[in-house]
Amino acid sequence: MGWLDSWLSDLEEPAPRPTKKIEAPREPEPEILHVWFQTRQPTGANDAGQVELGRYSVSNGVLHIHDEAGKTIGASYRLRDGDDPRQTAARLAREAWRKSRGESDFNRPLHYQGGSFA
What we know:
The protein is an alpha+beta fold. Helices cover 21% and strands 25% of the residues.
């Protein structure tokens, strides 16, 4: 072993320099808005019907439906010119609500107003 090899073996390796992890800029969390939608119509004077609360947000022209925890669920819709976000959110929230119940209202009772049919 020569003098150069011994000198090189005595040198310490420099400590690795810490690197900063560059994070991509995050978009701010969208504001979650609320909309009420009708799930059952009123049947008389003592029955007010039924409504449910839907949650939605609009980000970059796309409307997203959220669950109670604020997580985005599958329903989303790209808004077009002239679309009312609140009305669209009510429609999508109602569809998501129906899917989550897993049942059809086909065999529901039908309530008719008093009167005669010809």
